[in-house]
What we know:
Largest sheet: none
GO cellular component, one term: endomembrane system
Low-confidence stretches: none
Main location: membrane
Number of helices: 6
Order of helices and strands: HHHHHH
Oligomer: single chain
Organism: Agrilus planipennis (Emerald ash borer)
Number of domains: 1
InterPro entries: ADTRP_AIG1 (IPR006838)
Mean pLDDT: 80
Membrane topology: Multi-pass membrane protein
Amino acid sequence: MVFMLSLASNNANHLPRKMRKIKHKLESLKGYIFITFVLPLTTYVTAAFWTIFFLNKDFVPSATFALMPSWINHGYHTNGMILVLMDLLFENNSIPPVKSALFGITLLAIVYYSIFFGIYILFGKWLYIFFYEMT
């Protein structure tokens, strides 16, 4: 979604003059989504995966390796962060106000963990094996 907004805002220069006001709104929305949702979630997923992997490889579900080779799984959890870092370096993202960004990050955390614990409540199984060790 962020990359689609980036494409739209970069091509907004080709619009008639009266419609160029939309470029500022597209850039603000793109910056808000990127800084509030994409950057924190990608950082969390990459850091959590590699921390879990280095602490104990057995915590990564073995069913995952039956579906795909381990190098693909590692690539999924690493390439996202590489793309986000490239976007940070090469794209001019507008920084949202702190209050709205904190609200968005808080909302993201509530939704993420609600889904995470909702899976346990509905199916009686944790999403990750290491939670069985803690309960």
